[in-house]
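Forwarding these from the shared drive since the link keeps breaking.
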Amino acid sequence: MSVQGVVKSMRLILPGVAAGIMVANTAWLHSLASMLLILPRVAAGTMVANTAWLHGLASMKASDYIEIARLVLEAIGGLWVLHLYLAKRQGQGSLSITHGFRIYRPDPSSGGAYLIVSLVIQNTREVLLRDLSGRVTLLDASQRDPAAGEMVLAAFGERDPFVQFINPADPEFEPVGLEPGDLVDTEMAFALERVGLMAVRISIEGKQGETDKTVFLWNSFFYVDPPPVAKTPRWR
């Protein structure tokens, strides 16, 4: 195989990723030195079997050397981009949980109503979040323990914030995951026999990064102070 053939093969194999990202970091010089040491081993299987490359090397022009150097730099740039992509998906993750609610009363005279809770769950870090599961619990905050004098938060409703986005019966079912910047915007409805002071507790569990098996927990809690009786829904 001639040197020109090797150059053409490298052009097909190496991705056309810009090497300019390496210019600002002098560490690329060390990477280039390492690459130049590795390349002869990679090409040895082809070169040893065919001595014609020696004649081709002797007849190479300056432009051929420049072309090979450019391809090597593109390979280093591609590896650097891959490194940055993988590195950004590791580390410490964080979820932002934004909530809202409204009370809907179909018939104000009956006393029955619906509490509609809205949630925006967003991945705010440059880290992959995967295998997410969640629980939204509705609590009665209108009762107090006479002995302790503290509020008794009795749970009387529970919803899964991701249920609209998963289908366990699907053979290709995968747990919910959020790439950096991704979000889930959802709503849940709770039927109420009476309207009083309530509280909502939100718990999200999940793993972060590509391989980390540690389960992380994100929580949020807020009170629901129902607005005066009105036929039109109100947002808080």
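-- next protein --
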Amino acid sequence: MTALPAGVNLAWRDDDLEQAAAALVGGEVRPAYELLRSTHDPDRRDLRADVLGDVGKELHETISAFADERERDSSAQLLKGSALRSAAWAVRRRAVAKRASDEDRGRLFFLAACAMDALATAGRLAPDDGVPWSQHISAIHVVAREVSNVDDFHRRMAERSPDLYAGTVSWLSAQSGRWHGSTDRLVAFARERTSALPDGHPLLALIPHGRLEGWLDTMLKANIVVRIRDFYRNGYFKRPAVKSEVDTASDRILSGDGAFREHPWAMTAHQTFAAYYAHASDSVRLRSHLELSGPRAALQPWSFFGDPTKEFAEARRAAGLQ
């Protein structure tokens, strides 16, 4: 099995995606493009576009040249836009890790603008496809300063495929205090969005994901003493009101697992619960979700705490799974 680059969600089981991603690592764009062309299920298309974009972020110029020869092909434009979206996020993360230069900012905005242009083109070429707008939410999120900037693209996605995981989670993150929203706002969205979902649905992971985003908001506002204390004691995750709400969502996704076990985003969803329970020190629920999470790490939310592969491995050890 070809090793995929860092910064890629690996919480899925899809042989065709594995082969296309491996080919892309080797510089071959066509298998990824052909896979997207042949994928019509919205949830699977959402996952494949997201993963192939992350795998292809370092090859975005090659992918762009390939897509520019197919300017009327929605799948080619989707692949291009997703790779550029991921490349923009990579620049942003590097810029956050150090003092961003004018060159960093210029490159970030250039990549994001190119991504949004390609994704908008993909959306126009395939007007019933919600996946370009799912990816567009993340692309504009990387540069948007206010929640309202993302709202229109969430609406376009929701009109076509309201339950797309990648776009809905990106929209949830856009509600956070780090993007001029608030923890109350993102928690309210998670509650509203999950209330009518069937048991087992992967989007029930919005509840723990919202709480993890809320923790990040709290940590960024706290002074250094509070940050250190809360990080080591995991106090936020153990608050009775917080944990009770996540436990209820956990019961719902576990009780309906049989109906959604083959959903493309099921493993990612269970790893979101696992990340919460790893930091809430609940080894019983942690193990329940890790047993449904596959052997490889998702990117988020493990990346909130450090290296996803290391965080995932440590959680598996804590649950007695390795």
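The mean pLDDT is 91. The two ends are 21 Å apart (CA to CA).

- D.
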